[in-house]
Design goal:
With 300 residues, this protein is an alpha/beta fold. It has eight helices and 13 strands. The strands form three sheets. A seven-stranded mixed sheet has the order 8-7-6-9-10-13-12, sandwiched between helices. The model has no long low-confidence stretch (mean pLDDT 94). The protein binds zinc ion.
Length: 300
Amino acid sequence: MSLETLETCPVCNNTSFENFLNVTDYTVSQKEFTIQKCITCQFLFTNPRPDESEIGDYYQSQDYISHNDQAKGLISKVYGIVRDYTIGQKVKMINNLSNGKGKLLDIGCGTGNFVNAGKENGWNVFGTEPDPNARNAAAAKTGNIIFESIQAPELISEKFDIITMWHVLEHVHYLNETLDWLDQHINQNGTILIAVPNPESYDAANYGRYWAAYDVPRHLYHFTKNTMQKLLGNHGLTIQQTLPMWFDSFYVGMLSTKYKGQKVDIPDSIKTGLVSNWKGRSTEEKQINTSSIIYVIKKK
Ligand SMILES: [Zn+2]
């Protein structure tokens, strides 16, 4: 196993970190990883982490369902039903954020459900996906070429009206390079949507090191609203608004109770999900603080 250690903070370049939390990879390796916190800017990141050549080994699980339409089990069934509903909501969201239906790029499109729904809704869609099985499934579903990554030469001169990254940015090794790419490939009035887990949510605090959305070592970063805004600001981007993801608290709760007690505790995960959504709703005094957050991002 080859791990790489970040010596400088990806957000502020300072070099002093403290250990924040030790978390076990319950999904694949059962190994423990450390999440560190930058003392200067509070950015949370998994450190050390598998390097790019090794990370693929940590996705080798039938449970890694975002890449597998055939996964079985209760959690996967619920996941599938909710996914179909939330895909509809996401298409509505991009329609509301855009004047007309232009070019849509979904980075890390998995098996292509969202990008296909966008295409059926009239968008000119593009997708990237590193996993070859998921990529082939997405290509078959959409009838489009799905690229391996944003580095594909076919994308060099493209610009997009909407770029989406649904639970993807926390997985990419080249964080700053990716944000530069987004800034260069979004149209002047375009919108970038980045959905990531929120380690400041109630369910994160409630489950602690069992919180499933830490998902080490696949999640390399653990963004808060503050660190996300700092990072985006370094790349000419800014948060226009934050939106909730209501279902993630229940799904993450089910997985978290399984990690904590060896089996899923439905009542506990429903209760925690409801409390998390209630505490995380936006009010006049405070911003969204749900289990996962959708960042609506514009050029500065
Ligand atoms: Zn920092």
